[in-house]
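Objective 1b of the project was to move from sequence-level analysis to a structural picture of ligand recognition. The entry below was assembled by the postdoctoral researcher (A.K.) and checked by the PI before modelling. It contains the amino acid sequence of the target and the SMILES of the bound compound, flavin-adenine dinucleotide.
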Amino acid sequence: MIESLLFMLILGGACGSILSLASKIFYVYEDPRIAQVEYFLAGANCGGCGFTGCSAAAVAVVDGKAKPTVCVISDMETAANVAEVMGMEVGAAEPLLSKNECSGGTRADDRYTYQGAPSCRAAEALLGGRKVCTIGCLGYGDCVKSCIFDAIHMGPDGFPVADEAKCVGCGACETACPKGIVHVRTMSERLLHFNQEDDALAPCQQTCPAEIDIPKYIAQVRDGDYAGAVNTIRERNPLLLSCGRVCPHPCEDYCRRGIEDEAVSINQLKRFAADYEMHSGERLPIPCAVPTGKKVAVVGGGPAGLSCAYFLRRLGHDVTILDAMPKLGGMIRYGIPEYRLPKEVLQWEIDGILNLGIDYRSNATLGADFTTASLREEGFDAVFLGVGAWNDYTLRAEGEDLNGCYTGIDFLTRFARHQQGDSDEDAIPIGKKCVVIGGGNTAIDCVRTLVRLGAEEVSLVYRRTRKEMPANDVEIEAADHEGVKFHFLAAPVRVIGDENDQVTHFEFQKCELGEPDASGRRRPVPIEGSETLMEIDMLVTAIGQGPDVSFIEKEDAIQNLQTTRWNTIDADPEILQSSVPYIFTAGDSYTGASLVVEAIGGGRRAARAIHMYLSEEELVPVPKSLQKKHIPESLFESVNGVVQKKRAEMPEMDVAERIQSFEEADLVLEESDALAEANRCLGCCRICYNKDKEAA
Ligand SMILES: Cc1cc2nc3c(=O)[nH]c(=O)nc-3n(C[C@H](O)[C@H](O)[C@H](O)COP(=O)(O)OP(=O)(O)OC[C@H]3O[C@@H](n4cnc5c(N)ncnc54)[C@H](O)[C@@H]3O)c2cc1C
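Corresponding predicted holo structure:
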């Protein structure tokens, strides 16, 4: 018995010693911080961080493979706790958010009713997924089922809608969607996304130079989600109040509804949403990414500069705008008159952009008050040049510098400065019989301004016919209603003055249209012996304008900044980088005199390139970029089932009343009209479209 006990004791002791030795040999050390980190993580094991559950994420943090912000569903407090365990700085991470890029709906004729398993994946595998269109959402909600955060639900049209407040960006929906319609992106990624060939885009969106998701904001207006509409527009265009008033809306030319009926009044709906925010008394919040510590100088505070500054600031960079004029806005303040874009409205819009934390310096002219070298010395890492096109072309005709003769930009900017109290100069004396030469927006703004300033007779002289006039159609029509006399097919010959060098007559020659020229428009050919004299006492020439790049010759450091023969700044067309690597450009100074919406789109494209430059990434063009090209299958010849319905008429002030003042002439749609107009939108995607409510 005693022997047995002794044997057991010795055996036990030996086993203990072996185990103790084994534990020393095979000991696996687990860093205690793993458990501490895991303790702070959310415990949802959702995999949104890219690791297989919270334990794996904690190991990754301790191994230095993930940041304290690893957990996509926790807040910054969690990140701070994890950072404390690790003895690190918290750092910053932009939240990822899910977005369904197919708005779906009751679709066109190729609608397919799937009878099998209610799953997108099964539908796709069995039938190529042609429920409604080859590329669009299948609508069986695999993404909804995959979301453990209840952040996606089926919207009223039977297609998924992501709830930004609940979405944690775990990416499960993106993985579940067999059609690649659901995307999970950070705010910066969304801001930097440009139209691509494989995006499912309606023809209007493909046409818009600012690449706004037009069907989406119209659907938001239709659903009464006006704030949502504002956010959708602002994701691409920070000047929605201005564009809603002056954009010639090239998108409407491609509106699919216009094939069978009348194009949707897209721009009026933009104005409706924009005005809604301004009148709501509250600005919608605009998030910005965390600061990068990089500084950019934006020279020129017109639409291109404002757009570039806005996107750069939202991407986390420090931005300062420098402008030669006393106030920001460029041509939309000093060229476009008050009755089309009230200065108060413009200022509200500009304030919203500056409120993001953008500095500005007015009365600061590049080449006179500062140079690009001085900006570099101040610590700016990159420079954006958006100096516009402010040099008026001249007629090169005898007598055009007589007293009483002005150029268009000079006339409009001097008047605007005087009207705003920006200058001590006397007001320009207005003649009784005024003639304006030209057919573009500037010419029309000059005639309509002269009418309001009390000129007795205002004429517009243009070399071609009304059809070839580059000005916006509605503006030409408005000028006509306001009593402007149009003289088409009339080419200027000379200007005649009296002994005091005061203009008295204008001579023109009648023309007929010949063969098309390089612009595609038929060339005006003067008719010999048709010279005609017009009695006048004021003449404004508004025949076009180009950039003033005289600042280049004033600075040695930028002698190699290349320009084109039109004096525009030469740059790579995709990334808008000039021949000086830290200088980028867009807007009129790059394209020549163009449109607000072009300048806005260009400003964002330049911001993308500057962001890459500052991040020391290779500057590459947008992959598969679809800039104003059309995907052939999106261009239909007919659209079935549209119930004819007139488009909303733009409300405007009565002619007799509006020519008495500079009060805004074009008014905003009533809410009921905006809702009816939004309902006219077919909600097109690349090949599908929603039918009319009535037709459905
Ligand atoms: C009379 C008129 C009417 C128009 N109407 C319409 C319309 O109805 N719809 C439409 O879409 N477009 C219209 N346009 C065109 C539109 O205004 C321009 O395409 C747009 O403003 C271009 O924006 P931008 O930022 O490139 O240039 P700009 O708006 O010209 O801004 C350039 C800025 O650079 C500043 N600047 C210039 N040189 C310097 C320097 N050396 N140093 C510092 N700052 C400098 C200027 O002060 C200005 O603020 C109109 C243009 C004019 C002239």
